[in-house]
Amino acid sequence: MKATEPTPAPVPRPDPIKVVQRVNPEARPVPAPPREKSINLNIRVRPRTIRSLGTVAEQQGTTTKNVVMKALADAGIEVDELDLVDRRTVPWHQREG
User: Fold this and answer.
1) DSSP 26
2) Using CA atoms, how far apart are residues 51 and 57, in angstroms rounded to an integer?
3) Which residues contact 53 (CB under 8 A, 6 or more apart)?
4) What is the pTM (predicted TM-score) of this model?
5) 21 to 1, 31, 64: CA distances (angstroms)
6) Which alpha helices (DSSP H) does the chain contain, by range?
7) Measured between alpha carbons, how far is 60 from 84 in angstroms, rounded to an integer?
């Protein structure tokens, strides 16, 4: 039988807040701004509208949501900056490397 070596215990990582307080005892954590939860917007449109929206999004290399959000902003509607961000991920079959 082959003897197995014991698995080393994981090394605990220092708490970053305690490290900063050791270096600068007067430092205080800055509270993160509260995050607003996104809300679903569901609209019904005719097939021709959704096809046209998809075509424009493809031509611009973005998402249909992004096209809609930019159009709303261009129309003078206040749009949160995070709603204008294209947050797509690249599918595994399109990734380089």
Assistant:
1) T
2) 10
3) 45, 64, 67, 68
4) 0.57
5) 51, 16, 47
6) 16-23, 47-60, 64-74
7) 14
Q: Cα–Cα distances in Å, from 5 out to 1, 10, 53, 96?
A: 13, 15, 61, 39
Specify the amino acid at residue 24.
N
Question: Among 74, 73, 71, 83, which residue's Cα sits nearest to residue 39?
Answer: 83
pLDDT digits (tens, 9 = 90+) for 18-48: 888 888 888 777 777 777 888 999 999 999 9
What is the reported pLDDT for 78? 96
Q: Count of CB atoms within 10 A of residue 69's CB? A: 20
Instruction: State which amino acid sits at residue 26.
Output: E
